[in-house]
Design a protein that fits this description.
Blueprint: H1 3-26, H2 32-47, H3 49-65, H4 69-89, H5 97-113, H6 120-140, H7 148-170, H8 176-201
């Protein structure tokens, strides 16, 4: 990945950090419940290792595939995840959510491990299917008395930060040793997903 591709990446990551910091400042004073709602939503994805593994893996896979997947996948996931979150907030049932989340880590880790390169539409569709499960899990766990909108904003922004982390790590793909390192990282994600699948069945 050359410098021209890295510059937009750096700007996007800086924008993500800015949005997070701005949102924290904006919600720090008006209403305590709203501030807590945003921060609770932001903490939710990063407090569960199963969520973290899958979301970082999306960034890793995007970095492996290169443009335009490096942008499409991290955008598709939060958009579809927000839809899944809305279903959860509305109380619409989604059977097998825990299995879907664990399977997302297994398969996303596997595609990074084996450097699978499907057409962009198939890659985005795969990411989108798993995003519904993650979003639904976030939506159903909205604490009572907190703002659903700000809670949703929090977990969507946190997801973007995790994708950006995966993309940042994935920039090592331009070196041969980095390509091997990413494949190892994908294998670890898949192992982690297998563990969470075992826990879901236990």
């Amino acid at each position: 990945m050359n410098r021209q591709r890295l510059d937009p990446l750096v700007r996007a990551m800086a924008l993500t950090v800015f949005v997070f910091l701005y949102a924290q400042t904006a919600f720090a004073h008006p209403q305590k419940g709203e501030a807590v709602g945003f921060l609770t939503g932001f903490r939710h994805p990063i407090s569960g290792l199963d969520h973290v593994l899958a979301m970082v893996a999306v960034g890793l896979w995007g970095a492996q595939l290169g443009a335009p997947a490096i942008w499409v996948l991290p955008v598709a996931f939060p958009m579809v995840m927000a839809f899944g979150g809305m279903l959860g907030l509305m109380g619409v049932p989604l059977p097998g959510t825990e299995y879907g989340i664990a399977l997302s880590a297994i398969l996303l880790g596997a595609v990074v491990l084996f450097e699978v390169r499907p057409p962009l539409g198939i890659a985005a569709a795969l990411v989108g299917v798993f995003a519904i499960f993650h979003g639904h899990a976030h939506g159903t766990e909205l604490p009572p008395g907190q703002s659903a909108l700000l809670y949703s904003m929090g977990f969507v922004i946190a997801t973007g930060c995790l994708h950006a982390l995966g993309i940042g790590i994935g920039t090592v793909h331009r070196w041969s040793w980095g390509q091997k390192l990413l494949r190892v990282a994908g294998g670890l994600v898949a192992v982690g997903g297998t563990f969470f699948m075992w826990k879901a069945f236990a």
